[in-house]
Every structure is written in structure tokens, then in C-alpha cells.
Amino acid sequence: xxxxxVTNYAYLFLIPxxxxxxxxxxxxxxxxxxxxxxxxxxxxxxxxxxxxxxLTMLQSGEFWFILQNTTVYALMYVPGVTVVGMGLAxxxxxxxxxxxxxxxLYFLPYITSTxxxxxxxxWIFSTRFGLLNNFLKWLGFTDPPAWLADPNWALIALxxxxxxxxxxxxxxxxxxxxxxxxxxxxxxxxVDGATRWQVFRYVTLPLLAPTTFFVxxxxxxxxxxxxxVTFALTEGGPNQASxxxxxxxxxxxxxxxxxxxxSALAYLLCILVGLATLVNFRLRRRWSYA
Amino acid sequence: xxDSGRIVRVALYAALIVYGIIAFIPFxxxxxxxxxxxxxxxxxxxxxxxxxxxxxxxxxxxxxxxNERNFLRYFINSTFVATMAxxxxxxxxxxxxxxxxxxxxxGRRLIFVAILGTMFVPxxxxxxxxxxxxxxxGWLDTYLPxxxxxxxxxxxxxxxxxxxxxxxxxxxxxxxxxxxxxxxRIYYSVMLPNAKPALAALFVIAFITNWDELLRPVLYITxxxxxxxxxxxxxxxxxxxxxxxxxxxxxxxxxLPLILVYLSAQRHIVQNFMGSGIKG
Lengths: 290, 280
Description:
The complex is a heterodimer. Chain A has helices at residues 3-35, 52-59, 61-92, 99-111, 114-124, 131-139, 154-179, 183-191, 196-223, 228-233, 245-254, 259-287, and strands at 38-39, 47-48. Chain A is an all-alpha fold. A two-stranded antiparallel sheet of chain A has the order 1-2. Chain A is globular, with a radius of gyration of 23 Å. The relative contact order of chain A is 0.13. Chain B is an all-alpha fold. Chain B has 2 domains: 2-64, no CATH class; 70-276, Orthogonal Bundle (MetI-like fold). Chains A and B meet through helix 1, helix 3, helix 4, helix 5 and helix 6 of A and helix 1, helix 5, helix 6, helix 7 and helix 8 of B.
């Protein structure tokens, strides 16, 4: 077929996707950049303030506190989903017959309604009537924490729910990676007298490195976008103790209607995620053969 | 040797079952409490006995939530929004996937990279201008802002359909070209029918994602009659915080359809998630 006609058809087919790309992706990305240099409460006219929002941000104690929360959260969430996801995948990849059943069970938290399961967790964490504290009391802990109401524990509870919810998703990624590894390699190592741990440490883990790398990147991006779970579990409290940057942006934009400041925060978030990804790419050369 | 093998097997199953319990307990807790009376949900120590079933009025919480708490309406809203958005994904992503996967044209790489690249921009960046756009269009408190963005933007879907179409044999369309069919007819009557499994998986994934969406309803919907299920559940928390039995009943109602949808297409979904690894 004539190539010009093919081109015309191709662009015709791409019209919906291109409209989506321009109106809901590229356009907003550019607009947010502009808004981040203004002071705007949505109702009035945006006022140009240059780098004002960025300066306010860097000088605000609250911002640094939120940034610390975001980092601590990522340091719990990323290793959490990576270790649990990889562990489950390795266990399921041992060739047991019930593997499809357990795989489906572990994936369940990920595909069900986030708000519904998070609200259930909210009750499980409840200080007096919650399942968790009653279980802990049964185990002999006399004074378990108030979890969601305790500033020292709220962020940890938030990370726990997120890891619980998403570990199954990362398990699937690891399972896909494991299936790409030739099982005869493991068998050969076993025949040569390697223990199960040695096979995992010196055969499976290095060969799985490309998947692990991909998982960490995805997990990092995910850890920066916490909204639903925060909203349904703690609403960022107590006293912002479980507010991460993404939720802080929501608060500034849609509770305080400070669009300029929120956009500046959003761009900062974008840059931080980009930097973390870049660092990961650098480090990759050290720990991955792929 | 054989004994150590048996010990390993027992340990393996023990680990799998322990994590299985951790994964499942919140669902069990939700379900049990939707069949309990108000007093039983506050019993110490907590009880897993579904007392209402024993009492002979098992569905009284469900009747209350469904009729008096507007959940019928939320259910209809969620179903409508998720269905429309998912149909849109099929339409937009299959067309784009056909262009990317089967056609050679200038700008192909650039557009593909732009679509993939913007996926990594956090939603926090785009949501503020999107909100302003929706407000400017006068779309607040309509279904449109919940449907249109998902209808037109589907990175995972585009990837999935591109790969699906690319992997089809060349002979498939050659016969049609000899018959003098145009590209649109090839797409519609040759490509689409051969991509049914991928389309089914895409529909289910898009349905689950849209059913689960919370940020957009929270921003765009204030009219109680237009609320979606997750949003309706959240209003429960502020209005009836003490009534865990009703909240858990609502949670079951929002969760059950997704579990059914998931089970109906589990194999396709697992394969496609494993293949592409990205939701949204």
C-alpha cells in the first residue's frame, strides 16, 4: 500500500490517543510548570511570583518534615514490597501443585477496592476494639500502641497497609522474571552440592537482577504517589505524621486551594522521583550483570 | 536426604499458609462483620461468629446499606463510569496499538516515547491543571471527568495492544489486502477478532482500575447522587464512624464485584500483568 496513505491512516487511528496525550498529559505538565510560578487561590487572577513558591517551600519547616516522612515511607515501602514480593515468588516457583491457588490469594489484596480494604485495616488497627491489639494482648503485650492515633506509628501503619496491598503485584513481576531463568542452572548447582541458600544467593538472585532493578524503579514511583490509602487510613494525621509529599500536594491544592504552591511541590516531587530513578540506574552497574 | 526434603516441604507450605492468612484476614473480617449486629462488632475479645446468620436475619445490614444509605445509587454510578471508561480504553488503545504495532509512518517512535514517558510523571503534577480544565468546561458534578481522561489515556493498554498486534503473523492481513480491503476494514474485521484475549484482559484491568479510582471522584463530584462506591464508603466514615457493621457491609459490596470480575478472567489478567507489569 502507498506509504502516504498508510501515514494518513496511522494518524487517523491515533487521533483519540493523541488528543488524550495533549489534553491530559503534555498540556497539564506544561500548565503545572507555569502555575508553579504564581500565587493563585483558583478564584482570583494568578499573580506572578517567580521562584517565590520554591523559596517558601525550602524555608518551611513543615515542608522538610513532610519530605522526611516521604523518605522514611519510601525506605519502608520499597524494601518491603521488594523483599515480600521476591520471597513469595521464590516460594511459589518451587514447583508445588497448589501454586496457582496461593498466587491468586496473594494477588487478591491488589485487585480489590482500595478504600474498602483500607477502611477494614483502619478498624483492625483500632486501639481498643481492633483485631491487631487484641491479638497482641492475647500474645501477652499488655500495652500495645494506638497505631493510627500515635504519631510514632501512623506512618509505619500506612506503609504496612501499602505493602500488604501491593506485595502480590510485585510477586507477579518476580514470577515472570523467575520463569525466564533456566531451571537446569539451579539443578546443576544442586547436583554440585550447593545448599538451597547458596543456589538462591549465587544463581537465582544474580540472574533475577534485571527484574529486581525494574521492580525497584516501579516501587519508587509508586511510593511517591500515595493517595487512596492515606486518605482512607489516616487522612495524613495525627498532626501530619503520616502525610507524604503526594498527600501534602493534595492538601495544598484542594483543601487550602493554594494552586501555585501545590504545583511547585508537584514539580519537586517529579524531580525527586526522576533523581531517585537516575541514582538507581547508576547503581545498577554495580549490582546487576544485565 | 529424604527426611530433609520433607521438612523443607512442610516449612514451605507453612510459610505459604501463614502469608495466605495475612493476605486473607482483612477480607474475612470484613465479611464476618457484615453479618454481625452493632453490639457484636464491639465485643471484646473480637468474635468471628456471624451472629445475624445464627439469628435468622442474615441480610439485614445489606438491606439497610443498599436501601437507606444510597448504595444502590453508588453501585449504579460506579458500574456506569467503570464500564464507559473501559470501553474507551478498548477503543483508544486498540486503534493506537494497531498504528504502532503494524504500520510504518513518520513520527511513530516519537509519539510512542511521549506516551510511555509521560507515564512516569506523577498524577499530582497533572491533576491540578486537569481540575482547572474540568471546571472551565463546566464538567464538575457530571460523569464526564470520571470517564473522559481514562477513555483517552491508557498507557498500559497501548503497550499491551501494540505488542499483541505486532506479534500477529503477517499473512493475516495479506489475504485481506489482496482482497482490496482498506486499513480500517483490516483493523476491524481481521485484527480485532484475533485480539480477543488481550482485549478481554484490558477491559477487566481498566474496569478494576476505574472502579477503584478515588482522587477524581473526590475532586469532581459533590452531588450525593453522583458519588461512586469508594467515595460513598468514605462518606460513611464521616457520617457513621461508629457503625462498623454498616461500613463493613459497604466494603463487601464494593469489593465483591471486583473479586468476581477478577476470578472470571484470572488467567488472562495474570498473564498480561506478568507480561507488561504496569497497571493504569
